[in-house]
Amino acid sequence: MSSARPLTLALSKGRIFEETLPLLQAAGVQVTESPESSRKLILPTSDPGLRLIIVRATDVPTYVQYGAADLGIAGKDVLFEHAAQNPGGLYQPVDLDIARCKLCVAVREGFDYQAAVAQGSRLRVATKYVRATREHFARKGVYIDLIKLYGSMELAPLVGLADAIVDLVSTGGTLRANHLVPVEDIVDISSRLIVNQASLKTRADRLQPLIDAFAQASAA
User: Fold this and answer.
1) What is the pTM of this model?
2) Domains of the chain by range and CATH?
3) Of 17, 96, 145, 172, which has the fewest CB atoms closer than 10 Å, so is most exposed?
């Protein structure tokens, strides 16, 4: 890797991007454009040695692992699922404690989840978090038929596709609006700084100060 090219930080739109901005500012870096108003997928910063690339949240670990980005920020949920197919290859030096939420089991109002589990019913569960869901129900000794969806998860119990969903819950507003209720927390989620291991070896003089700045800003 050439040391002359700028460092590349992979981010996704939305909450992670917005909550990363103050951390960058604390590190002395200003982002001059917003991905919400710009169609650009590569964004400059006030530091000519750092640029941002905007990718889907689930793709952030892939860009970092294969060296297209030197570092990135991704949720624990995304990293857990990524590791199932791509063990190793990512260094996670800092839990940034941003974009906090929970991975939860939710069902439609009126569905007796506890009774279904106690009776040994085989549940149909819709989710995009396949590994986490399988491991959670395996620990409980509950048999499930897993249905993988990529969006509009809340619809599945309402139209009879699934008995339950496993999804991220922040305020719970989307669940309430669709007459669903959370019935079980699986794990607390926050976003982590991830670093390409080869970049850390070859560009440590530039990467380590940025890693340290993120760690200090998130601890403040």
Assistant:
1) 0.90
2) 7-100+190-219 (3.40.190.10), 101-188 (3.40.190.10)
3) 145
Q: What is the distance between the alpha carbons of residues 15 and 21, in angstroms, rounded to a whole number?
A: 10
Q: Which residues contact 123 (CB under 8 A, 6 or more apart)?
A: 116, 117, 137, 142, 143, 144, 145, 163, 164
Q: What are phi and psi of 186, to 5 degrees?
A: -100, -50
Q: Give 15-37 pLDDT, tens digit per residue.
A: 999 999 999 999 999 998 888 88
